[in-house]
Amino acid sequence: MNVPNIKLSSKTTIPQLGFGTWMMKEERECKNAVKAALSTGYRHFDTAQIYENEQFIGQALAESGIPRAELFITTKIWNDNMFWDDIGPSFEESLKKLQTDYVDLLLLHFPVTEYRRPAWHRMQDIYKSGKVKAIGVSNYTIKHLEELLRESEIKPAVNQVELHVFLQQPDLVQYCHDNDIAIEAYSPIAHGYDMDNKTIAKIAKKHGKSVAQIMIRWCLQKGFITIPKSARPERIQENFDTIGFTLDEEDMKEIAALDKGLRTCWDPTHVA
Of 42, 51, 115, 140, which one is the catalytic site residue? Predict the structure, then answer.
């Protein structure tokens, strides 16, 4: 099965299904998970400075022998590195750990009130240097995006946010669509919340799939770049096997009714 690509505003393309690596801080677990993901067919890998695993991912990807051009690597500038003088050096350190001379997507991890505006200007400089193929943000709300778009020469190609069947964020999704900002969904299975949900279970049985696969498939079918994560080879394969079937109109309608604004991660809506 081939993972569909999405074209970003920066003109680069991103595989719609990616492999998340949050909480994989142990070297052996992380490397084995990345190797299992590569074997399964993943080519898009999502990490961050705060995950403390860039070096393990870099080693696993280098050892795979897969040409760099066939891989898509995302990392994120952590809050503590968003000072004007720190972004550049921290990014260079990320490149070193990842064993690459560029990343495909670089994100600001969180809309830190006092730093996000100057930080974005530094992100634009890095983009112009050619060391990243695209730049974007994570955990930005509409008000944060409005501020950024008013002041920026280069708009974010991606906004990576928590998004799943219980947190559908339709206003944010529409705003990003209207401004040609791709939505990237992290925590697509809501950290395992309500995996016994009767509606999803019914749809899963209908398609011969798991509840998790239905939740991931919903994200993909909505057009979101989707980043599931697991360290278990069987789950890595299961998550990947979401690109070979389609939810029908009735399925999508029933899932739309499950939205309850549930956040399982941090909440950026109160960040000024």
Answer: 51
Rounded Cα gap, residues 15 and 105, in angstroms: 12
Task: For residue range 97-139, list pLDDT tens digits in order.
Answer: 999 999 999 999 999 999 999 999 999 999 999 999 999 999 9
How far, in Å, CA of 14 to CA of 190, rounded?
23
Question: 158: which 2 tokens?
Answer: 């991606």
Query: 5-193+223-243 domain in CATH 3.40.47.10?
Result: no
C-beta of residue 64 within 8 angstroms of C-beta of residue 36: no
* Interval 168-184: pLDDT, tens: 999 999 999 999 999 99
Question: How far is Cα 73 from Cα 180, in angstroms, rounded to an integer?
Answer: 21
* 140 is annotated as an active-site residue: no
Under a CB-based contact definition with an 8 Å cutoff, are residues 145 and 179 in contact? yes
Helices 211-221 and 198-207 cross at an angle (nearest 10°) of: 90
